[in-house]
Amino acid sequence: MTRINRITILSWSLAFVVIWFGVTEIMHPAEWAVFVPSFVAGVAPAATLVMVHGFLLFILGLALIFNFYRRVAAIIVAIILLEIIFNFLQKGGLNPIVVRDIGLFGAALALSFRN
Fold this sequence. Notes:
Blueprint: H1 6-27, H2 29-32, H3 46-65, H4 70-92, H5 96-112
């Protein structure tokens, strides 16, 4: 029996959050459309962009769970979270959502720089 280590716990915990948001965005894109940044709003309908974003989060979460390019997935999650953090900071300043996302960003960054 293999021992579950702290990297696995960190990966699975981050994956849970990422997959939850991904599935929620896929199932209820209209609820998330208000968060689409203005600089990409003209590319496609907001609901479509949300669903693509949700699918990407879902795939990244699976990669974190199954250790499939886990480091690369963590880097991409960190970049996505950084964009979300800056978008929220620009729109409304520091709030509980930004604080949570900074914590998730730290978790993704920790997985990105692991040995």
